[in-house]
Amino acid sequence: MVRVGAVNYLNTKPLIEGLAGFSDEIELTLDLPSRLADQLADGELDVGLIPVIEFFRAGTYSMIPNVAIASRGAVLSVTLFSKVPWGDIRSVSLDEGSRTSAALTKILLKHRSTRTVQFQQLPINANPEDATTDAVLLIGDRAMKACLPIHEFAYDLGQEWHDWTGLPMVFALWAVRDGVHLGSAESAFVRAKNYGLSKAGVLAAREATVLGLDSGYVRRYFTNIIHYDLGPAELAGLNRFYHLAVEAGLAPEGVELATYHRPNLVACR
What is the architecture of the domain spanning 78-165? Predict the structure, then answer.
């Protein structure tokens, strides 16, 4: 069996809806993105839908081609709520489930503030409105539902990244642990993506009921907000993010974006 781990967030639904059905060799489990990264690193998973920063930090993974969770502007599910403007932020509570978004927050603050910023973790079950920090980073479903009325500013980090760089922001991708052979399961990931997007309306109606969101809003989120391809523009954005992460001391140098079965397709140099 191929042990596959994914996130149980709204934005992953089109990628995992039919995944196990396209290969009887896939065993799928669901967890937080940060925990999936640890499980992949520990050899408990063979493939993980992990934060891209963890792909870089590991330095030994290959990626499933043409599948990602990305945005080309606003992402809606990664928001920095702040009581003060960017330049006045001195402390941030980071969503426990986040690693790429946490790194993106640090990169943006490095370039937008001259202040020393303190970071702490916001536990997954903690009420973000109780945080005493200047800002709170929320990701996933709770970012989409949160309001945090005492926070005057709500920065969509997908939009902030795009406004700054002009490039898409890639938040997660399917990473394959070194030495793993997917066999016939390899094609299931792209097939599942295509199937899930073809069922966007059905998924939106179901998930909107679960989350208490408007079904039309969720459908637009699947089809217009989140981008699930990993094309040339996304790869360029991924390279830019990697270089900035290295510059900020958040990732090691010399990592390559190796594609599964086509190694060294894109070098982050």
Answer: 3-Layer(aba) Sandwich (3.40)
